[in-house]
Amino acid sequence: MLTLGIVNMYDKIKIVDAHYRAIARAAPICYAYDFSLALFDFPFKMERDELVEFVRGETTIGESGKYLELLNNEHHLYVSDLPPKGFPAHFGSIVVTTSKPYPQKTLTPLDVADGNMRKKSYMFLVGLGRKGLPKDLFERAEYHLDITSKRISLETCTAIGAIPTQINALTFALEQKNKLQESKKF
After folding, report:
1. Residue spans of alpha helices (H) in the chain
2. Does residue 12 register a pLDDT over 90?
3. How far apart are CA 137 and CA 178, in angstroms?
4. CA dist., res. 182 & res. 174, Å (int)
5. Cross-referenced InterPro entries, in alphabetical order (predicted)?
6. I need a labelling partner for 126 at 20 to 30 A (CA). Which of 8, 21, 117, 138 fits?
């Protein structure tokens, strides 16, 4: 399972446009590339179904929340507070997305694609807001991923699009390479 986890670093009390717009932008990307979507520390005090309806009523992005509703209906939408210690095991390895990965925790996009082919689960955490992810997550995460592999900082919604796209493309390329190698054996 691959999950895109968005951590709210804006206001945790009141809802601002950036909250529902980021969710509406992430949903079609997650749906298109078979990612789940996890939302942490968002100021929504409502059930998932209510959240989907709220987002649908606030924006036309993502076909007015159509893909958020599909993710929810298929049980690929998670909403919770940021766990103070560990994340639930079903999310797999926790990966902080950053342009400044710790060398000892670096995971490349190709490593992820290879792990994905072997059915390894990952959750990629992206910070929503100017502050980026909380520093304690850098220590807690098993891995760090620079999706550009060039130490280039990306804006949140750009990263939301780049991470699933890059991983999906690399996974597809590895699958095709493996099929070609298998066909040459015969």
Report:
1. 17-32, 48-58, 61-73, 109-117, 135-140, 156-185
2. no
3. 35
4. 12
5. DUF531 (IPR007501)
6. 117
- In whole angstroms, give the CA distance from residue 63 to residue 80: 24
Q: Which of 113, 94, 109, 96 is nearest to 147 (CA)?
A: 109
pLDDT digits (tens, 9 = 90+) for 15-25: 767 777 888 89
- The span from the CA of 58 to the CA of 66, in Å, is 12
Nearest in space to 106 (alpha carbons), one of 116, 96, 114: 96
Instruction: Name the band, by pLDDT with cuts 50, 70 and 90, for residue 62.
Output: low
Bridge partner list, 36: 3
- Whether 23 contacts 68, CB under 8 Å: yes
> Can you say whether the dihedral through the CA atoms of 3, 43, 47, 31 is positive or negative?
negative
Residue 14, CA distances (Å) to 8, 11, 17, 43 in order:
12, 6, 10, 6
Residue pLDDT, tens place only, 103-150: 999 999 999 999 999 999 999 999 988 888 989 999 999 999 999 999
Q: What is the band of 55 on the pLDDT scale with cuts at 50, 70, 90? A: confident
Q: Rounded to an integer, what distance in angstroms lies between the CA atom of residue 101 and that of residue 105?
A: 7
Report how far residue 112's alpha carbon sits from residue 110's, in angstroms, rounded to the nearest whole number. 5
Which token pair is 101? 């990965």
